Amino acid sequence: MLLIHCPYCEEDRSELEFRWAGEAHVVRPENIAAISDEEFAEFFFLRNNEKGLTYERWRHIHGCGRFFNAARDTVSDRFLMTYKAGLPKQPVPVAEKFAAIAEEKSVETWEQTEGDAR
Amino acid sequence: MAELGPDIATRSLPLSGVHGGSAKVRLEPAQPAERINLRVRAEDVAALSAALGLDLPVKPKMSSSANGRTALWVGPDEWLVFADGGGSIGSSLTQAAASSGAVHSATDISHRNTAILVSGPGAAATLNAGCALDLSLDAFPIGACSRTLFGKVEIVLLRTAENAFRVEVWRSFSDYAFALLAEGARDAAL
Questions:
Q1: Does the CB of A62 have a partner CB in chain B at under 8 Å?
Q2: For residues A90 and A81, what is the distance between their CA atoms, to the nearest angstrom?
Q3: What is the rounded average pLDDT for all residues in chain A?
Q4: Listed GO molecular functions (chain A) (predicted)?
Q5: B90 — pLDDT class (breaks 50, 70, 90)
Q6: CATH number of the B20-188 domain
Q7: Which of B146, B147, B149 lies nearest to residue A16, judging by beta carbons?
Q8: What is the ipTM of this complex?
Q9: Which of these, B20, B73, B117, B169, could form a disulfide with B182 (CB 3.0-4.6 Å)?
Q10: Domains of chain A (ranges plus CATH)?
Q11: pLDDT of residue B134
Q12: Are the C-beta atoms of A59 and A71 separated by less than 8 Å?
């Protein structure tokens, strides 16, 4: 069971209490009626789906009920840090980053196991 | 036509008559209570505290009690307040909150929730049968409270004494919660 740090409850809580809520820091355009279809598609439909470090919104739905932001490694599923909603994108602490890279190397990825299969 | 006296509709509690537990844990439905779900902005907390006659806790997982009322922190701007009584709708808690004059939302949930009292030396072990919270006294001291999951249902848990907890649960989930607690109580006594 993963433990996720809730920045509002100020402690680690079981993953069961949380829900994923999409990519974080997607800014709604100031004047949404004026933007082109391509710009709207970029804002509304297209997500980065990054491998590795991603910034996501999570919700502590069965706890304090609050949305917050999390930096998470999508390869190892490790949560690098969490911070309150409304704050700008936070840099990941260096120590966390190295721990994540070390962990990523120990995770069996598709490239390592199947990448060269023809 | 039958005489319709005032007692024609007798309310029964969702868990009325049930009892359970084991050698180490006692499970019993709590007395009926008035409850409100209270949402207040940070700047109006003092006004609502004064109106309700107790200090709304502002630190996570804290609760406070005064004048027969108990307020549990469930979120940064959300509290569960309960008081004994609750026989009739239109609770004194909503009226007290309204008298504060501050902007707030107080929803009467007296009959949406019911409560189960879990007590005895195996109480924490019983709850941990379905709840992942750390219930040691260091992490969850007397007076600590939290909204969390118990098995598949959401509960608000309050530690009332070293070996006593109050489990607030939605009435339609109370059968499930009580049955799972009964199973946890059996395991705790092994």
A1: yes
A2: 9
A3: 89
A4: sarcosine oxidase activity
A5: low
A6: 3.30.1360.120
A7: B149
A8: 0.86
A9: B20
A10: 3-107 (3.30.2270.10)
A11: 95
A12: no
